[in-house]
Amino acid sequence: MDMISIKYAFKLDHRRSEVFDLKLDPRTLELPRKSCGDLPFWTKLDFHQCPHCPFDGSSRPDCPVAVNLVDVVKRFDQVFSYDEIDLEVTTPARRVFLHTTAQRGISSMLGVLFPASGCPHTSFFKPMVRFHLPLSTEEDTVFRSSGMYLLAQFFLRKKKPGKDITLEGLKQIYQNLNLLNMNVAERLRNAACTESSINAIVLLDVFAQTLPILIEEQLEDLRQLFASCLSCQTA
Q1: Could you tell me which of 212, 218, 228, 213 has the C-alpha nearest to residue 143?
Q2: With 0-12 CB in 10 A as exposed, 13-18 as middle and 19+ as buried, what is 231?
Q3: Rounded CA gap, 184 and 202, in Å?
């Protein structure tokens, strides 16, 4: 199977561009691991390690999420959060162009880098990476993550009946992601990293913090989209 390519091309100004050509393993949906020898100190597992981290230093010396941020932090040095950019994202299914801010573009790319890191707290989102929707809205994310979670429960139910269809498990996944985001941002703050990278994580975390609430509110709003389907089921 061919590697899955997701390319983020940032045009920062008329003289500078940064292109990230992300190659994911089609089976694991993860990026190749970097060599431990050339990684900065802030990627070490015990540097502001998440309290719910399942790893220990003897089995894995570096934080997998932090490792995937090394190139981002380095290449966006001197770029500020609200700098205007032209972004082009190319996936196997689509090409997206948008004039936006640096933090929003970086945050969208982190939606690929975090799940593709190998961290168990982000691995749930791998199917969304496989069908990546760049610069997705709040409504997009609620619809896609809820659908993905329920599809996972469908597959699990074939093995073990009585799985969760209340989305309570999805809320817990986002709570775990919120905790991870806060600690990764703290890593970068203590490493004196560029604020555009930190704020991109903060922006990503807005979804993690609000999704458990929005699931309750917006799913009821989405219900009307299924009116025809629901009427057929009750007929």
Answers
A1: 218
A2: exposed
A3: 10
Phi, psi (rounded to 5 degrees) for 49: -65, 140
Q: What's the chain's length in residues?
A: 235
Token couple for 234? 């009750």
Pairing between strand 4-11 and 84-90?
Answer: antiparallel
Indicate the helix (H) or strand (E) that contains 156. Answer: helix 138-159
pLDDT digits (tens, 9 = 90+) for 19-47: 999 999 999 999 988 766 688 999 999 99
Question: Which among 17, 145, 34, 148 is positioned nearest to 88, based on CA atoms?
Answer: 17
Q: Give the residue among 128, 134, 216, 123 at the shortest CA–CA distance from 173.
A: 123
Residue type for 201, please? I
Question: Which pTM does this prediction carry?
Answer: 0.88
Other Cβ atoms closer than 10 A to 42 = 22
